[in-house]
Amino acid sequence: MRCFRTFFLTAVMVAGVTAGSGLSSARAAGQPLDYYLPAGVSYDPKVPTPEQFFGFQLGEWHLRSELLNAYLRAVAAAAPERVVFEVIGQTHEAKPVVVLTITSPENQRNLEKLRLNHLALLDPAKAAAMDVASMPVVVNLGYSIHGNEPSGVNAVPAVVYHLAAARGSEIDALLASSIILVEPLRNPDGSDRFAQWANGNRSQTLSADPASREHLEAWPRSRTNHYWFDPNRDWLPLVHPEAKARAELFHRWRPNVLTDHHEMGTNNTFFFQPGVPSRNNPLTPKEVFDLTAKIAAFHTRALDAKGLFYYSEQGFDDFYPGKGSTYPDLHGSVGILFEQASSRGHVQESENGLLTFAFTIRNQVLTSLSTLAAAQALRSELLALQKAFTPSSLALARQSRVKAYVFSDGGDPARGAAFIELLRRHRIEVRPVTSDLKVEDRVFPVGSSWIVPVEQPQYRLVTEVFGRRTEFVDSVFYDVSAWSLPLAYNVPHAELESVPGAGAALVAAPALAGKRVGGRSGYAYLFHWHGYYAPRALHRLQKAGVRTKVLTSPIQAVVADGTSVTFDYGSVLVPVGMQAGRAAIIEAVIDELVREDGVTVYAASTGLTPSGVDLGSASFVPLPALAVALVTGEGVDAYDAGEAWHALDTRVGTAVTLIDLPVLARAELARYTAIVMVDGTYDAISDATVESLRRWIRSGGTLVTMAKASEWAAKKELIKVEFDKALVDGMHQPSSTKSSAPAKASSAAVSADTSKTAVRPDSSRRLPYAKGDDLEALKLVAGAIFETTIDVTHPLGYGFVPDAGGTEASLPVFRTSMLRMKPSKSPYETPMIYTEKPLLAGYISEQNLRVLGRTAAAVAQPLGQGVVVAMTDNPNFRGYWLGGNKVFFNALLFGKAIRPVRAVLGDEAEDEDAHE
């Protein structure tokens, strides 16, 4: 205990605060333990109090994860009969993801039996004989999934101490009737960043001024995880290790109540659910909402007793199933969101007076304990809900028109396997088809296709994963309005109105299995570009110093075993004979990418092909080794930047240079083959730096821009495109909204007319002031999915499978704004374009939908020897938009293959300055 106290005081002194008078004068920030905990309770002296362990009171300093976990280990060691400490995962920064299991000594001795009995309630065959009257309720308390919302994690020592050390009949009854899972910190990486910021910028004499540096974090701030993702949007896509560990814990226990402790703006009070009634997920059982309201009564009494202000049924909703308070609702659990006004430091002025850190902590402690009291009192009802959940799900499934969903890997085993792994993590049943299945004009082949029957316990989640909702009771959304995962993974899929023959349910996703065809070659190797990990395979070769080329015209080649194989646009050539000195390295890397990336590599023994260009043709374009700079810093959208960083780092395996905007002016741009600018504000970039970028592009660089960065690039004349971002009036629509029906994939002409004038509100019209925010929100695109078509003969489209007999592939994209880009004047420079009626899932007003159709999704325009690729949307959305990832990777890797097409005008060729 002494060593941790010494460590912490040393860290404080390093931060610039002396340990003597500084800690003494800081007492005003903290409060004694009885400020947080119920009165009249005696505690076991063998369990250390937070103050005894830390050497300071709760609220004086922000706790880092290592110090918190050390205390929790000490509590578990002092009270092993009640508390078990367990590490269930690791973060990106290798910090432990922890859970405490707290219950009575008797329950601890029989914990596994109780767990299995609890899960048996979800099995109708077993549940019928089970009596819930004697079963404990399971409650999961989870804190601070957003790193800079620290009152939750700092409340944990008080909550755990109370549960571990309290004495008396009341705590004995609570622990005997409850199994309490405490996730003390759902985002250790972000939380530690914020603790360092708040402690390091705190004065000995506390400043409550909102303008103080302590209250104003620097970019990218610490709400997010290591890669700047929002972890509270990852309950459904499960991109990050913390989310995967959390999902395993959830399904291991299927808690009856799950809490999600957050913070909000400083001038608010305290929120607890229910949320906005019209914004609930329609598949949530009614009993969940009824129990949420009953649990809320316990919070009301606890907060009223302290004279505290609060609210519910306003602002926050329970719609998107990828949030912590909604995901449980679709599993027969009750998710509860808490939002505490944030001091964003140790004390801050607010509209409601001085808001201290200790005060925010106390409210989280109060509602943690009121949750436990509610779960204890409502135990029978909560367990009855769990028992009824599977039968009700199966009954809904039997009423559904859709009886199953079928999907295939679309020729990319990696995406198919990744999608299956995700479904299995959510305990969704997946079965292989036993024969080719034709649905309309699409064939789902045996061996690479699977079905998901809807008549299974996870019916509700299956419907959310595969569904495409376009009708809504309320058109205002706290988060996104669509999340169809097959569209995100870009896997072919279809609804079935009957269940076809299928094999046994999968217990795991198929393993990636690359192979060599034709053995080893001293001449050359080729591999296709269809696989998701083909970019990683290419980059492995580049990092090893191996020269590579990309095919820009389809061929048939004879491989070393004598078979003829078709190689499409984007196939990669690895010359061996031309770099014989690296033959051993090439062989080792080929073995690695076959094993690790699931790529099939073909050995060629001759450069002569029976069809198409030969291997020595200039149609194979040499590729420079990828070197990427990602522009970061104040003004840049941290989410989008993090998603690009994560994609390149974890899916391609390239070292990404993160360049803050002020550094860009003095950076040696020649080091990079590509520079990425995601959505953000770039007006701070000087004209001199713009000219440096222009020279770098002309010399062969690839600039990839997204959203407002694309608009900035056009403004600076780095690319010649026009934008229209005017919002279209949707205010006449009623709150019960039906978006236009989604259309099938269609061929989209680049020359489409985009000059439609946006319909704007009549300035003479009077509208209700009180409804202004909601009416204005109708103009927005609150995260919806749209269809584009991509030209598979263009380097941006390499690796996509075209529609039958064509050169275009349908590609879903995720859009969060109404920024619209007109197609380029050249008919060859707009490889991605929105279809005429592009809505696939989610909300958009009919007026906005009309003006979005046939606009450009991506323009790739050569400039000198380089190219600028401008996109209107983020292709890497939240880390699970795998179809968009391929476009992003193609833009970075194949910039050298994007060359100008000179339009012939009579006897003269067009010679624009942009196309040098």
Question: How are the SSEs placed, and which strands pair?
Answer:
Layout: H1 2-14, H2 21-25, H3 33-36, H4 50-54, H5 65-78, E1 83-90, E2 96-102, H6 105-109, H7 111-120, H8 124-127, E3 137-143, H9 151-165, H10 169-176, E4 178-183, H11 188-200, H12 241-253, E5 257-264, E6 270-272, H13 286-305, E7 334-341, E8 347-350, E9 353-356, H14 357-377, H15 379-399, E10 404-408, H16 413-425, E11 431-432, E12 437-439, E13 442-444, E14 449-453, H17 459-466, E15 471-472, H18 485-489, E16 493-496, E17 515-517, E18 524-527, H19 534-543, E19 548-551, E20 555-558, E21 564-567, E22 572-575, H20 583-597, E23 600-604, E24 620-623, E25 628-632, H21 638-652, E26 656-660, H22 661-664, E27 674-677, H23 687-698, E28 702-706, H24 708-715, E29 723-724, E30 737-738, H25 772-777, E31 784-791, E32 808-815, E33 820-821, E34 832-841, H26 846-852, E35 856-863, E36 866-871, H27 882-893, E37 904-905, E38 908-909
Parallel strand pairs: 3-4, 3-5, 5-7, 17-23, 25-26, 25-27, 27-28, 28-36
Antiparallel strand pairs: 1-2, 2-4, 6-7, 8-9, 10-14, 10-16, 11-14, 12-13, 15-30, 18-22, 18-23, 19-22, 19-24, 20-21, 29-33, 31-32, 31-34, 34-35, 35-36, 37-38
Helix pairs in contact: 5-9, 9-14, 13-14, 19-20
**Mean of the pLDDT scores?**
91
> How many individual helices?
27
Indicate the radius of gyration in whole angstroms: 29 Å
Shape: globular
Report the sheet with the most strands, covering strand number, pairing sense and barrel closure: 9 strands, mixed
Assess the beta-strand content as a share of residues: 15-25%
| Measured distance between first and last alpha carbons | 69 Å
Biggest sheet, spatial arrangement of strands: 26-25-27-28-36-35-34-31-32
Q: What is the number of beta strands?
A: 38
The quaternary structure here is: single chain
Helix content: 25-40%
Point out poorly predicted stretches.
1-27, 730-738, 740-761, 907-916
Structural class, from helix and strand content?
alpha+beta
